[in-house]
Design goal:
It is a single chain. The protein is an all-beta fold. The protein has no helices and 11 strands. The strands form 2 sheets. Strands 2, 4, 5, 6, 9, 10 and 11 form a 7-stranded mixed sheet that branches. A 4-stranded antiparallel sheet has the order 1-3-8-7, with no helix packed on it. The protein is globular, with a radius of gyration of 13 Å. The chain starts with a strand and ends with a strand.
């Protein structure tokens, strides 16, 4: 059975850091593109960054490059999202999504497997 579980969210002050983890089980992660999305109440879920099956990285949110870093450890079936220099506008529920495809995409419908989300709150 396929499962995707995010962890690592929490409350952090502006300028702080968090590391989110996305752990997959039930299948090898090697052939999956993995995207991170975020959603705030009243708005659509938006793609922010993705790592392809061969570790190509694509940014979908202009404010992310230089602050957020994505990496994957296929042996551990885990993808990491390092969040640095966090701002209040980064506050959202962050979701990990998997697509058994080579390339990345910013579109929600592209991904077949989703985690339950982890809350990130940036506030002083």
């Amino acid at each position: 059975q396929v499962q995707v579980v995010e962890s690592g969210g929490g409350l952090v002050e502006p300028g702080g850091s968090l590391r989110l983890s996305c752990a997959a089980s039930g299948f090898p992660l090697d052939y999956f593109a993995v995207g991170w999305f975020r959603q705030v109440p009243g708005k659509e879920r938006e793609g922010i960054i993705c790592i392809s099956s061969n570790e190509g990285i694509t940014y979908y949110e202009d404010s992310v490059p230089g602050r957020f870093t994505i990496s994957r450890d296929d042996a551990k079936k885990t993808v990491y999202l390092q969040l640095n220099s966090l701002k209040p506008e980064d506050t959202a529920v962050y979701y990990c999504a998997l697509a058994r495809k080579y390339y990345c995409s910013p579109y929600v419908d592209y991904y077949a497997y989703w985690g339950q989300g982890t809350q990130v709150t940036v506030s002083s």
